[in-house]
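Practice record 12: protein with zinc ion.
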Amino acid sequence: MSIKIVELHKKIPGQKECGCGFPHDKSLRVLLYGDFESALNYLKEFNASPPYAIICDDTTYALVGKRVEKFLEAKAFIITSKYFNEQYWENLLAKRNYNTIIGVGGGTVLDMAKYLSYIYNLTYVAIPTAPTNDGIVSPMSVIFTEKTGRRTFKAKSPSIVVIDYNVLSSAPWTLIASGIGDALAKIVSIKDWELGRDELNEPYCKTAEYFLVRAIFLVLEAIASLNKNMKKSEECVINLINSLLSSGIAMMIVQSSRPATGSEHLIGRHLELNFGVPHGIASAFGSIIAARAHELYNPSWWKENILSSSAIFSYCKQSEILSILRSYQVPTNKLIESVIIGKTYRPNRYTILHKINPTREIAIKLLEDTNLIHELA
Ligand SMILES: [Zn+2]
Ligand SMILES: [Zn+2]
C-alpha cells in the first residue's frame, strides 16, 4: 500500500527566521501516513536503523507490536506496570546495542518509550495506537516512579511518527473523546501564553502559535465530522491526530509545554489526580471554565463565536466528553475546588487563574455561567 510522506522538518522555519530566541527543535523529521507495515519499510531511509527495541503493553503488542517485531526482526519489551524501574531498563536496554526504540501504544507507553530514547540517546519512532493526547511529539514525558509518584521529565521527540488510520480508529471512543478534549484545550492555552507575553513580557514564538492555531482548526474539523454522524470516520480520526501532532510540534519548537497547557490543564489536574478522570476529559472541563474566565476578565480573548466558552461546551457535549465526565461522579464541591486551587499546581506559570485568583463565589459563577454545574450534577 502507498504511504504518504510528510517531511515535517522542512516546514519549520529556523530560529533566526522566526526571531523568537526559542530553540526551534526539529527532531521530528517525518510523518508517515498509511498502513504501519508498509511504513516500516521507510525507517532506514529516515535514519532509524536496527537493532530495534519495541516498547508496548499487552494490548498494543497484540494489536501492532507483534507484527512490527516479526517484520523488523526486532525485540519487543512489554510494559506491565505504570511505574518506571530504572534498573530493569538498564539491564534490558543499556547493555545491548540497540539503535532505535519504537514505541507502540497510547499515552503511558509512548511516554516511557520517549523517555527511554532520551536517557539512552537512541533514535525514537512512535506508532500511536490511540489519538488520546498531544504528548506523542512533545519533548517531555509524564513518568511514575514508586518514590516520586507522577513527575514530568525531559524526553526526546520522535524522529518518525507512523499514522495508521486502521490502528487509531480501533481505540475505544473514550480515548478518542479524550484526545478531542486535549486538543480543544489549545483554544485556552494559547490565550494564557499571550497573557504571559502581554502582562509579564514572557518570550513568545509566532511559529509555535501557527502550529497551535492549526491544532485548533483541525480539532474543529474533526468535531464537524461528528455532526455528519461520522464517529471514528477517517476524516474525524485523521484530523484529530493531526491536531494533536500539531500541538506537540508547537511544544517541540519551544521545548516547553507552555504553548499547550494553561489554566484549563491546571483545573483539570485536580480531577485527574483525585478522581482518575482521563487527561483530555479533565482538560476539556477546565477549558470550558477557563474560557469563561477569559471572556469575563481578558479583553484579548477570541472574538469568534466558534471559540467561545459556550461553543466549547457544545463541542464537549457532541463528542460525549461531558457524559464521560459525568460517569466519574465528581461532587459539585470538588468541581468548585478545582477552579479555586488550580493555580497552585503551577504557581509560576501565569494564566487567567493567576490573574484573577478565583474566590469560591467566582468559581461558582463560572460553573453556573457555563451551565456545567447543572450538566454534571
Ligand atoms: Zn494535555
Ligand atoms: Zn520561534
